[in-house]
Amino acid sequence: MNDRDPALRRIEEALASLDTAKRPPPGWQAGVLAATRSPRPRWRPRAVSMAAAALAVIAILVFVLQRTRPDATQLSLNIIVHPGPMNQRGQPAGLGDTLEASASGAPHLAIWIYRNETELVVACPGGSSCVETDGRLRASVPLDAVGTYSVVALSSEGHLPAPQGKLDEDVAAAARRGATNRTESRTVN
Amino acid sequence: MHDSDRSDNEPRERDAVPVPDRPSGPSPEVPDPDQDILDRIHVGDLDLVIRMMMDRYGEAVFRFCCSRLRNDAAAEDVNQNIFIQAHRDLCSFAGRSTLRAWLFAIARHRVLDALKGNKISANSDPIDEWHSLSIADQRPDASERIDDIRLVNALRECLETLPEPILSSVLLRYQQGLSFEEMAQMNGDKPGTLRARVARALPRLRRCIEYKTGGTV
Q1: Residues A121, A176, B121, B136, Cα dihedral to 10°
Q2: Which residues contact B144 (CB under 8 A, 6 or more apart)?
Q3: pLDDT value for B164
Q4: A45 touches chain B (CB under 8 A)
Q5: Residue A154 contacts residue A123 (beta carbons within 8 Å)
Q6: What is the phi-psi region of residue A137: left when phi exceeds 0, alpha when psi lies from -120 to 50, beta otherwise?
Q7: Which value does ipTM take for this structure?
Q8: What angle do CA B22, B28, B31 make, to 5 degrees?
Q9: How far is the C-alpha of B162 from the C-alpha of B201, rounded, in Å?
Q10: Percent helix, strand and coil across chain B, each rounded to 5?
């Protein structure tokens, strides 16, 4: 970029290469998406803010009233294994099957699936294997390698951290932020 | 008010080197590389927009955070918060700058917040011991050329001695490749001011590196 002084050009090149090896951790995008899933105002001039404040009071009253009803935001996790062509009847999970996990709970929700607790294979929301419909997350993963697949559903009032790739550490990090979780596993032999 | 304002306004033409520019920000003649994302903003598909932005700029923003914070864990948190804020504020993006410049403006502010919050050194004292030495003083043995590893290590330390507006300008210019016009869109400075700021910084970095390593860049 600078052809007048080789030393300065070398400094420019060093600046350009600074921290090129740095990458954000796996699943970081899922953390962002989870954080952005909560409803937010798109346009809020002052007059509307006043009305919003009044509505907020009403919403609080409704919320208090609903506390007496069963908690609709309680975390739930369901797992279904769809048998593949290689699976024999009656086998709980086998190579070629597809594991589908669905979870509900609000407002911040995520499904993380690990293989052998140390390999993050799905971080939902995020990725093509993750679908969200009507406040319910659904993630699927092909069981294409042997091991134990641990499915963790998390729900939190605040933002969930991005999973780093190790089940115990990720769940502990989420718990530190007040998240609740449910975990189930399936083993493929 | 940064201490850097003082040094940034000092006439130091002796040190300044001409800095060539790159293609500028939004221009009718230059197609915007983010036009596909802008099209999605206009139709309100914000979730898709933020995914596209994360795919395109996630690593670059993270690099910027790492270089400024020098703490990977802090950089991860700040990087996430930058895109969360971008998603929240996309509706207010008016196109007065490139999308990239807008995103890096958010990044710069969030990094500064993190530096203040964590009481990480914000380079409040830009005057280092090397700064007052003459060029001749700093090269007692100019025969040794610094190898790349030592150069980068010294560069990291020397960047920390630059005051904030200069440090961010240098990184945005050379690490991220923003044009001076794009950088001007971020904070209201004039492109010429930014160009002069960066031009003055390079010889300072060189002196600092050579002082710290005892070699020649």
Answers
A1: -30
A2: B214, B215, B216
A3: 87
A4: no
A5: no
A6: beta
A7: 0.76
A8: 65
A9: 8
A10: 65, 0, 35
pLDDT in tens, B158-215: 999 999 889 999 999 999 999 999 999 887 889 999 999 999 999 999 999 999 888 8
The per-residue pLDDT for range A96-155, each reduced to its tens digit, is 889 999 998 867 899 999 999 999 999 998 888 889 888 889 999 999 888 899 999 999
Q: Do A7 and B18 touch (CB under 8 A)?
A: no
Report the C-alpha gap between A122 and B40 in whole angstroms. Answer: 26
B31 pLDDT band, cuts 50/70/90, is confident
Give residue-wise pLDDT tens across range B193-208. Answer: 999 999 999 999 999 9
Helix (H) or strand (E) holding B75: helix B72-89
State yes or no: cis peptide before A125, omega within 30 of 0: yes
Tokens read off for A88: 């024999």
Chain B interface test: which of A13, A17, A22, A159 (most B C-beta within 10 Å): A22
Average pLDDT on B18-24 reads 49
- Can you name the residues that pair with A111 across neighbouring β-strands? A124, A153
Single pTM value for the model: 0.55
Strand A130-133 with A119-124, pairing: unpaired
The residue in chain A having the minimum alpha-carbon distance to the alpha carbon of residue B15 is A8
From CA B10, how far away is CA A58, in angstroms rounded? 58
pLDDT at A158: 83
Burial state string for B124-137 with b = 16 or more CB within 10 A and e = fewer than 16: eebebebeeeeeee
